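Today's session is about reading a structure prediction critically. Students often jump straight to the picture, but the first step is always the sequence itself: look for stretches that repeat, for charged clusters, for runs of hydrophobic residues. Only then move on to the predicted structure, which in these notes is written as discrete structure tokens rather than atom positions. Here is the chain we will use throughout the hour.
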Amino acid sequence: MTAKKEKEEGANLLVPLDWYLKSAIHIGTKYKDKSVEAFIYKTKQQGIKILDVQKIDERLKIAGKFLAQYAPQDILIVCRRETGYKAVKKAASITGMKRITGRYLPGILTNPAYEGFFEPKLIVVCDPWPDRQVIKDARLCNIPIVALVGSSNSLENVDYAIPCNNKSKKSLPLVFWILGREYLKNRGLIKKDEDYTYKLEDFTDEDL
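Below is the predicted structure for this chain, in token form.
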């Protein structure tokens, strides 16, 4: 890709194209689930699936607007994958959303007698496979699910998918840094990108 074409393609992205590429947000696995085929740009010689950066960016933009329709206390972010803990905690802290990092206990959404019972109106999961129990419970309660999905994930029971590398300790911080900014902006809590004072390093221990 020429420098000129790269500049043109990155002009309307939420973050510089270089941020996406350095975070490996577009790197999938060797396995491809048919339900996410539309998000895959190409397959490398080794069999690794490459996600479409333009579609990642587009879906993040839409997700930011969709999430902003809900009050923060009505949104629950769930992350069983350890590489996403810090990013999820920071995103929840700056937006006011609820979060569960680590093991999700069955009954939190379905058993009113449970001490930690909670009734969110929207759930965000970092990976539909390790977070499958909360998806199962959300379905019983008719709670919509927004999910970060990699090339190997199924979209079954997912209402809105954000394609990305949902395993990496570099890509997950970037995803939640973006979602945090877009949520605050679309809620009218900040007027422009420059008003978002949080650094990407606040979401990760890794330098991009």
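Discussion point for the tutorial: The domain at 25-188 is CATH 3.40.50.10490 (Rossmann fold).
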